[in-house]
């Protein structure tokens, strides 16, 4: 299994909504970003890429690339999910913290979890989103932006014995040990 963590911040700027976990939330400001500024998904992507030792989101989606201008960050998450599955891993669970005074996130957490689970091919119960303030301290406390932290655990994708490589020895060993994984 592999563990990864991610952190992201975006500053508030002109606008009337923010996008967090793929949910559009009306707000007095927007977030300054090349993409949609979804700090929840950016931190989650970095955690997944970190667990896979594949660098960070900036390496896969450079802000200098016009293709990613104003794109939905769910596109980034789907890309990271593809890399995860390609490398033989599934998400065991993700734990995400959103740090800001406003907007209030709690009412949207369930929808965010559903969005993230859909993109990652996991259960909603495998994703947790919680929100906190910094008691009006620091940039988040002054209402200058939103931060997010994510931790993920990835596990080897289990495979039925029938999908093991053609090796009678391996199949016999697996049958004897009652294993159902090839990883
Ligand atoms: Zn970001």
Can you put this structure into words, describing what you see?
This protein is an alpha+beta fold and 183 residues long. The protein has one domain: 2-C-methyl-D-erythritol 2,4-cyclodiphosphate synthase (60s Ribosomal Protein L30, Chain: A), CATH 3.30.1330.50. 31% of the residues lie in helices and 28% in strands. It contains six helices and seven strands; from the N terminus they run ββββαααβαβαβα. A five-stranded mixed beta sheet has the order 4-1-7-5-6. Helix 4 links the parallel strand 5 and strand 6. Helix 1 runs parallel beside helix 3. The longest helix has 13 residues. It is globular, with a radius of gyration of 19 Å. The C terminus is likely disordered. Zinc ion binds next to strand 1 and helix 1.
What descriptors fit this protein?
60s Ribosomal Protein L30, Chain: A, 183 residues, binds zinc ion, disordered C terminus, alpha+beta, 5-stranded mixed sheet
Question: How do you describe this structure in short?
Answer:
The protein has 183 residues and is an alpha+beta fold. It has one domain: 60s Ribosomal Protein L30, Chain: A (2-Layer Sandwich), CATH 3.30.1330. The chain is built from 6 helices and 7 strands, in the order ββββαααβαβαβα.
């Amino acid at each position: 299994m592999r563990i990864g963590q991610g952190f992201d911040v975006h500053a508030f700027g002109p606008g009337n909504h923010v996008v967090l976990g793929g949910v559009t939330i009306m707000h007095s400001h927007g977030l300054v970003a090349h993409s949609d500024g979804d700090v929840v998904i950016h931190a989650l992507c970095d955690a997944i890429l970190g667990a896979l030792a594949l660098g960070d989101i900036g390496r896969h989606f450079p802000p200098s690339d016009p293709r990613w201008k104003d794109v939905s960050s769910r596109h980034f998450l789907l890309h990271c999910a593809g890399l995860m599955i390609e490398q033989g891993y599934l998400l065991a669970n993700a734990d995400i913290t959103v740090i800001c005074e406003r907007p209030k996130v709690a009412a949207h957490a369930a929808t965010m979890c559903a969005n993230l689970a859909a993109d990652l091919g996991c259960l909603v119960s495998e994703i947790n989103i919680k929100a906190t303030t910094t008691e009006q301290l620091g940039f988040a406390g002054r209402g200058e932006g939103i931060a997010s932290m994510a931790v993920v655990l990835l596990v080897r994708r289990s495979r039925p014995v029938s999908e093991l490589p053609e090796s009678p020895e391996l199949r016999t060993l697996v049958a004897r040990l009652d294993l159902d994984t090839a990883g």
